[in-house]
Structures are given as C-alpha cells and as structure tokens.
Design goal:
Largest sheet: 7 strands, antiparallel
Number of strands: 12
Radius of gyration: 19 Å
Strand order of the largest sheet: 2-1-5-8-9-4-3
Low-confidence stretches: 174-183
Number of helices: 3
Shape: globular
Helix content: 10-25%
Structural class: mainly beta
Order of helices and strands: EEEEHEHEEEEHEEE
Length: 228
Amino acid sequence: MTSPAIDTKAFRSMSYGLYIISAKSGDTTAGCVVNTFQQVTSKPARVSVAINKENFTTGVILESGRFEVSVLAESATMELIGRFGFKTSSEIDKFAETKHETDAAGVPYVAEHAVAHFGARVIDKLDVGTHYLIVGEVECAEVLSGEAPMTYAYYHQVKGGKTPPKASSFDPDGGAAPEPAPAQGDAKPRIGWRCKLCGYVVEMDELPEGFTCPMCGVGREMFERIEL
C-alpha cells in the first residue's frame, strides 16, 4: 500500500501565537522566540512548549527547571523579535537592551510589547525528535497590557517575518514573506533590500560595505533586492 503524501502547506492552516521563552540558571540568562506554547490543563494550570534541543535556551531551562513566557503583542517590533529569534543567548545578553522584569523565582521575562506573562516550573519533558516538549506547572501569571496578542499569521503577513530554522514549524520551502506589488504608472519604484534569513527590510538603493542585518546579524550577501 502506498503511503499518503504529506503536503507541508497543510500545516500553515494551523493557528499559532508568538512568544518569548526565557530562563535563568546561576548568572546565565537566555531567551528565544517560539510559536508552540499552549495551555494543556486548567486545574492544575499547566502549559507546554516545544523547543529545539540545540537552542541555548533549552539547556538553561533544563538546568534550572523553570521558564517564563511572554505573550507578544501586535506592536512588538521586528528588532525585538529578531533579537530573541535570530540571535543566540550564548553570544549576547538579549535582556541588556530589552525592558524586562523578574518573577518571584528570579527568572526574567520580557515586559515590553507583551500582553501577559507566565512563570512555570518544569514537571515533565518528552523527546519528540529535534525538539523537547516541555510541560510546566504555572506558578504565576499576569496581564501586562490590553493590546491584541500577535498571531503567527500576523507576524508573517503584516510584519513580513520569516520562520527561524530551529522553529517547530520551519519549512525550508515555504513561509517566506510575499513579494511587494510593483509600482504602478510612471512612478519610479522605491528600492529596498530584504534579509533572506529573517525577512528584515531596509529601504535604500545600495547596501554599504560591511552592512549587517540589525535583526539577525547576517552580512549584505544574504540580502535580496526588492521593489517597494
């Protein structure tokens, strides 16, 4: 019997949010962007997150046995998302330029452009291949603003963002931001450059020598020319 084909486009119909997972072990802090955070039970309040095994944040979570989650608002900037989504905590302090608070357990969480935060204690871990599914019992939760939470669709379609390679929903053949519409009439088109890794767009005729993406840090060779 022939196995049915898997159309990866089907996965794009699933609904996700956008979250920053953070942790602290000793003097080490870490954080990363995920889209697979969810509530799994209400009594007791438990949540789960799927996070790549190779992610630096994963090791800090497992060492400390705790994690924080900030629910990002639609107002979250691409710079904030890029800092936590396309750079590694092993090389930079992501909280140094980010407004943050700490919970009662001393774990930092992002407090800017966030709708709510949750502090959880790890109670279980499931190996699911490239990722761990980590289950936590919520020990604190707080509403931070009345803004609308950002959905993954909003991040792609409105913000023009791309999926980090270590994300659960990464698809190397899809998920790119749509091409901008060409200029109409005789108006001279505006020229921009888009990062092929994270989707960041800068408007200028030519990228200068030594230019690096302010979101993910790649060089100018990773940018493609587009018309705005």
